[in-house]
Amino acid sequence: MSNELSRRAVLAGSVGLVGSTALAAAPAPPAVRPKYFHMSQSTINYQAEFNAGKMDIFSFMDTCRGLDLDGLDIHVGQLKSQTDRAYLKEVRRGCLNRGMPIASICVSTEFGRSAEAIPKELEKARAAIEAGMFLGAPILRTFVGSPPSPDKQEEAFRRGVDALRKTAEFGAEVGMTVSLQNHSGLTSTGDDMLRFHREVNHPNFTLLLDTGHFAGRNGPNGPKIPGTTYDDYYRSIEQVAPLTQFVRAKVYDLDENGREKWIDYDRVFNILGKVHFNGFISMIYEGKADKFATIPNAIRLLRSYAKS
Fold first, then answer.
1. Cβ(160)–Cβ(145) under 8 Å?
2. Which of 26-30, 37-41, 119-123, 174-178 shows the lowest per-residue confidence on average (mean pLDDT)?
3. CA 235 to CA 8: how far, in whole Å?
């Protein structure tokens, strides 16, 4: 929390200084880049390989080590077990041996669609927290999901707030921060995310920024809300950036120069630099090209934004 406050305080001071001294004809300010950040990638990048038995968590670690990443972003769906302590000890030691800490543990919860499903979804989150704590992960990624129908939006929101608060409370008991990732549905805009942050109102609850899943962006995946534009999309990133400690950077389609076609990462990293972001950025590839050829280039692109 002190980290978050200090980053926001520096940002506020910078804005005030610019406002008091800027001239009408002043040139555009130079790009701001994060001084340093850590890089990881998600097991989701290799979900097909995990499902086919061609990859396990240990070969995933080796893949990440070979890509010179700093940590691992693990979805519990790619763990062989969340409760077998002997297996989890092997995973923990495997991370240590490779110098690859777990940056995040992820669970796909759905709190919006049904009140009857909430107990099962809360138990899913609790199990992920317990496994993540044993493995040494500092943060749990959750989803809040979607309403069952457009007319049930507010009801689903209230259900999500209550479930997220309960998850944050359990995380606080054992020492793991709980984060909400924007992922369409009830979290399609920055306003949605800020409302959840405000209403959950728990010191152990935070926001996780997904660069792909805000309304207004063209291209594959992500919410498509009529009337929204890229201005809305980047505004949402600006809203969430000061409150996040973890970013999931989506890559869809790299051009011949190795640049992402659907997201202006110059602009995204300028936003992150202005709020002094220095946490983990997890690359997630959701494109159709050969992943084994594209993922190294995607990581190279994101790495290039660290200030040297």
1. yes
2. 26-30
3. 17
Domain ranges of the chain: 2-10+36-303
> 302, exposed or middle or buried, with CB in 10 Å at 0-12, 13-18, 19+?
buried
Burial class (CB in 10 A: 0-12, 13-18, 19+), 221: middle
Residue pLDDT, tens place only, 211-221: 999 999 999 99
pLDDT of 13 above 60: no
What's the pLDDT at 253? 98
End-to-end Cα distance, the chain: 27
Helix (H) or strand (E) segment spanning residue 59: helix 57-66
Fold topology of 2-10+36-303:
TIM Barrel (3.20.20)
| pTM of the predicted model as reported, rounded to 2 decimal places | 0.89
Q: Is the dihedral of CA 275, 271, 66, 60 positive or negative?
A: positive
CA distances from 108 to 162, 185, 285 (A): 17, 13, 18
Residue 306 is predicted with a pLDDT of 87
At residue 215, what are phi and psi to the nearest 5 degrees? -65, 145
Average pLDDT estimate for 221-242? 98
Residue listed under structure tokens 């978050």: 4
CB-side neighbour CA atoms (13 Å) of 235: 11
